[in-house]
Fold this sequence. Notes:
Number of strands: 2
Oligomer: single chain
Largest sheet: 2 strands, antiparallel
Strand order of the largest sheet: 1-2
Amino acid sequence: MDLQTIMFLNIPLIEWIGFLFGVVGIYFGIKEKIAYFPISLVNVIVSLYIFYHQNLYSDVIQQGVYIILLSYGWLRWFRGNQNTEMPVTNASKKLIFILLGGIILLTIGMGGWFSHYTNAHLPYWDALATSVCFAAQYLMAEKKIENWLVWIDANILYIGIYLYKGLPLYAILFSIYLVMAIIGYFKWQNHLIRHEENS
């Protein structure tokens, strides 16, 4: 059975499932709750299925990498909860430059490969958004406040991609993610300030 043929309000039910788990996952991320990771893993698995059927191959790879990064973050935060809560911190300039370099290289590499060897739509835009998300998810796993700023950039890219691809529910989802990323940044900023005051 093709899961994309079961409809609710003229939108595939599987997209609604991804939508729900995506919003709930980000909510727990903002609250700095470890439940962010397993709930986000459900969203990632559903999204992987959807993107594969939309020929968004960079997004398929992205979801596979997310499984690894979410598992890593889950372990990092779990270990932090056992001993002492893992604090929100700033990313170093070195880490930011490494991630920027990685974004550029991955965008060129993935975009070029998908452009020449697949029928991917928007290969370079998709590769850019995917690369930005890798950086954001890594920063989230390390509990760096800059993760929210990178998510803001990624969400703006994806809103455009999904509107172009005719995935309105995912465009709405990423609009919600955009608002939630802005909220998350300010909430984590308050935690960072309190942590620095107590240090």
